[in-house]
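Exercise: predict the fold of this chain.
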Amino acid sequence: MTLAPLKIVLTAAGCPGAAALIRMLRTNGERDVTIVGTDVRAEAAGRLLCDGFETVPPGASSEYVGVLASVVERERPDVLFVQSSAEVGPVSRARAVFERLGTRALVASPAAIDLCNDKAAMHAALARRPVPQPETLEPGDLDEFVAACERLGYPDRPVCFKPPVSKGSRGFRILRPDVDRAGIVLHERPNSVVMTLDEAVAAFRDLIPFPRLLVMEFVEAPEYTVDALAAGGELLLYQTKTREAIDTGLAMSFRTVDRPDLVASARETCRALGLDWFVNLQFKGDKLLEVNPRVSTFVYQEDFILPYLGIKYALGELEGQDLAAAQARVRTSRRTLRYHEQLFWDER
């Protein structure tokens, strides 16, 4: 079956998952897809992979929405597909702007995005739901920080902390008393996240005001992700995968698995936070660590391309029975290996 051509404006076209996403959207087997990419970097990979490309300001810039809207107004895409955490909030708050231009912006509501982006607020919103979470404390000063670490088991057990609002692993540290500082210097890359409580206290002693931090139980267990499509807080489609071989904060290997307990937690989380469209829920063991209201790195199948299915749902091309049939096609034998590729071009 051949469907009408589809046009997409894709943000963050140079992010780690963009190349595979662009390729899989095009190889959908049903229709021609035109992709116009945007990115803050002029030399983002999307410049060479997409059918068109435009640089935009950072998502936090006051100029971002206006510049992106001018791209949408010129290109008239069917959907605006947002990949970056820094951009989902601004696009969500300006969704009416893009809808007036005839484009569906596939982002959750501002309230849902704000809950996801503030991990303290997210954990609080889920506190009465049947969603296992690490024990978490939010200290108000340095003394409370030390007391929180001790309450969670330091020095007998490792403890971790991070800012409740941050991107990726920025600000994340693991506290343990047996840090081999010489071994770290001699044998590890200069990006270790391990430190002692005394080192953390020394770092924070003179900070006024004390930084907002979450002190958390350190969970030693395999990492999993549920990648989902949601609508009105209801889980429509999902795929559960491992996260393996972490390199510079990015998982480099994935394996699809059958974990109905994690899917149940994801379903409760989407309902509690009122999520829509693409959601990435990260777990350690069975405990929910964070929720990203955007796409992530998918484990694609030729007959289960979750971003494409989400776009079809947005366009009214999929109904309940279609979603059920698509979900039944997910295979738990699927593996993904992320690797580095190179692109070449001549400057003009």
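Check your answer against the key: The first helix runs from residue 18 to 26.
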